[in-house]
Design brief:
Length: about 425
Amino acid sequence: MAASESVNPVDLLREQIAGASPDMLQAMIKTFAQAVMSAEADAICGAGYGQRSDERVNSRNGYRQREWDTRAGTIDLAIPKLRQGSYFPDWLLTHRRRAEQALVSVVATSYLLGVSTRRVEKLVEQLGIRQLSKSQVSEMATHLDTQVQAFRNRPLDSEHYTFVWMDALTMKVREAGRTVNVHALIAVGVNADGGREVLGLDVASDEDGAGWLAFLRSLTARGLSGVRLVISDAHAGLVAAIGAALPGASWQRCRTHYLRNLLTKVPKSAQPWIATLVRTIFDQPDADAVRAQFQRVVATIEAKFPAAAEHLDAARDDLLAFTGFPREIWRQIWSNNPQERLNKEIRRRTDVVGIFPNRAAVIRLVGAVLAEQTDEWTEGRRYMGLELLTKSRMVTIDTGEHDTDQTGPTPIAA
């Protein structure tokens, strides 16, 4: 028997999103608690909500409201009522602290470790509930899946996302009896309010131009616009995809990842010297000084390591795209470092799983982590000031057709 259709998690989540609620975890806990209570009431009645059955011994009779205080905030619960007798979720509301901790554990463990029906069934039994069918447990897992899908597919209704960071994380998945590598493509942007938010997540077989192009087009279809700079490592095909899907945007190659690549071009004994030289480029006070120092560093390296100097010189425009924007935000846009903490948190969760049973499990786990992180960013302070964002949007793109005192990086051609 299925859980009650009268508690519709899709409608509930849409209402959360429409109200700009930042607490995805609270919505997940509420939906799960409602689903468990509804399934337990159905088990007492002997039949599902609205279902005709000879085994029915009771029927539902609406709901009564009850507030439940949790670490995720106060949750308004709708407790099912019965026509004969009464129903009360003692396992949930009698021992509040223990029950709340157990339920959060159920939500977190079942959701973040793949939502296996068998695993959820065992976890629910830890709450003292032993009369749920496998179909009811499966329905609860589906409810949770619906919420992450809603997060991934939500409209990107900001007026603009001036800066966007992109990265790809490799995961292991079982497919057709083999363990293969897939790539979780992740985009984070600065919205019109100056706050960071996760814009999207997708899983691709190959980290190539086709995968990135499809990902970027899905973001623009949801409302991504106004992008002036994309910051990332040198992922295969990404630059071409930016030119095709985000006209007018330029690309900043992550300085940290590039330096690691450059150091492989010189002997190990020379690596500290090269690293120190390259870092001096980014210590300059203005754009002109940065470019002048870049030229001096290339000349200095060329005297001893011409191949490394040629490699660095070829990356000049990609490494210095940040100089077209206000000096105050250079540290935030010249590398992918702001995303490293997010990547570490994702890895901390995915390393526990090891090999995922399928791609849906990757999206489920990583999507939950990203939704949680977006909530934290929403409640935190602005990542960029509104005045600096306004100045960044006013940067003039240098097309070569006119002179200007303030020129930005050359946009990538489609």
